[in-house]
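Final report, Chapter 2: Outcomes

The project's central promise was a pipeline that accepts a single protein chain and returns its three-dimensional structure in a standardized token representation, suitable for archiving and comparison. That pipeline is now operational. To close this chapter, we reproduce one record exactly as it appears in the project archive, with the input sequence first and the structure output second.
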Amino acid sequence: MTRVNAERLRELRAKAVAEGRCQQCRARPAKPRCVTCQHCLDANKDRKKRNVSSGLCKCGRAPAEGTLACASCTEIASKRDQRRRARNIADGVCTTARSHGPVTPGTVVCEACRVRALGYSATNYRQRVDLGLCAYIGCKRNATSALWCPEHHEKTKAYHREYYARKRDEKRTEVSP
């Protein structure tokens, strides 16, 4: 589509929205508090379902390796989530859902979400350990230690070595009064 055509289409869509018509088909009236008519909303929903059921991304492109969405849709969703999260943090409401209310001091989630996340983490951790899986993410059987698979055991050891070295360096550079 040429630049002129794209600009013309943008103008036509803006005019349709200003007149209360659907921005997609520009023929039917838009739903209340929406810029699209019910017919176009249903058609888009059906198209997305067909694409996903045939193994494609909802937009119709091939999904990225190991995901259900293409790289473009993943990037768009990520940016949208970042904007939503930043807006919720600025407003002082739970980043999980605005309707949950104010955040717990020192966190970015409400008390209910904080407690649920703590319980979920502890429960999953305990289940993985009880099943003899790696406590890190449940990937493999434990072999090196009582909790982690060899790969994650090394990863955890390396992290702790780096963490304590950093703390030691901070303490050395700290000026005592």
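Archive annotation: Residues 150-173 form the longest helix (24 residues).
This record, like all others produced under the grant, will remain available to the consortium after the project formally closes.
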